[in-house]
Write a structure and sequence with these properties.
This protein is mostly beta strands and about 80 residues long. The chain has one domain. About 0% of the residues lie in helices and about 60% in strands. The protein contains no helices and 7 strands. The strands form 2 sheets. The chain has a 4-stranded antiparallel beta sheet, with no helix packed on it. A hairpin with a 2-residue loop joins strand 3 and strand 4.
């Protein structure tokens, strides 16, 4: 896990690096942004352009950077 936001009310969001191993191929890496909603994680964005420590909370909005573009989602 690269970034984590946890509010006093229990809302959670994070950026994590996922590595997938498939057979004899080289492992593949992906960076993913999630928030926890209604008993399960919700994928907000994914890609190698995500800055791993860019997750921020401002009011009720999450933001992060992917390939130098700021992305947002309601929290």
């Amino acid at each position: 896990m690269n970034s984590l936001i946890l509010t006093q009310s229990g809302k959670t969001a994070w950026i994590a690096t996922a590595t997938t191993f498939t057979g004899a191929q080289q492992p593949t890496k992906n960076i993913e942004v999630f928030k926890w909603t209604a008993n399960s994680p919700q994928l907000l964005d994914q890609g190698l352009g995500i800055a791993p420590t860019s997750l921020k909370l401002s009011g009720s909005a999450l933001s992060w950077t992917n390939s130098a573009q700021q992305k947002t989602a309601p929290f």
